[in-house]
Amino acid sequence: MMKYKLLVDINPLGVDLELIDENNQAQHLHVPFDDQGFAVQGLTQDDFVKAIKAGFEILESHLQDSDTIEHIEFTDIMNGWMALDETFKPLTPILMGDAQDEHFIEALMMNGIGGQLQRKTGVPLAVTLPLIITLRLKNNEPEIYKNTAHYMTLRAYIVYMLFGTNTATPAFAARTGFYNSEQMGWDTQALALTGVQPEQLPILVSDQALVGDLKATWLPKMINHKTVFKMH
């Protein structure tokens, strides 16, 4: 019986897994999102989920039934914003931002709203920022915008895959452009600008370690309710 720690890195090239045993010996595994190994633009939820599940399936084949993975750490998760319907079905590919959306930022900075938001949220406006991506949906894709019941980052979607909840810690909420770091909640001005309701965004939680009932049935059996999950 061997105890392991698993490091998970999700990046534009795919999913990288590093399995570390009690003797600090490491095994590395890479699963690309597609045959070309690079699928940032047009990456779908199915591509994303398929790569993660494939990585864990291969991982299971390398372990014995008596082995346990005691700790899983998501060391890095690439940026990405998801618009989903009431059943959490995605309405678009994973949204990474578009250079053509710079005009939204320019308009916000010219009328002073951009500066106000940056001071309250603590993050600069950029086309990859979920706030700007949502603003583009509102203006350019009204049908998708109208049918969106939930917004979440890729990190939040992983939490949803594992635990069936849509949550975010302040540290990760702050990266969306919707979070007011002084009031420690979703910013009313950002919500009004985009027309997003608080219930469409993740529930804010305080702890970075993930706790709760593990809902995922596709995980290897050596990953269970005793396994500690952590996000960076």
UniProtKB/TrEMBL annotation:
The organism is: Weissella minor
Picking any one GO molecular function of the record gives: kinase activity
Its family remark reads:
Belongs to the FGGY kinase family.
Signal sequence, renumbered to the chain: none
Q: Which UniProt keywords apply?
A: Kinase, Transferase
Look up keyword Kinase and say if it applies: yes
This chain's protein is named Gluconokinase
The residue ranges of the Carbohydrate kinase FGGY N-terminal domain are 57-220
- State if Transferase is listed as a keyword: yes
Example GO biological process term? carbohydrate metabolic process
InterPro entries referenced in this protein's UniProt entry, alphabetically? ATPase_NBD, FGGY_Carb_Kinase, FGGY_N
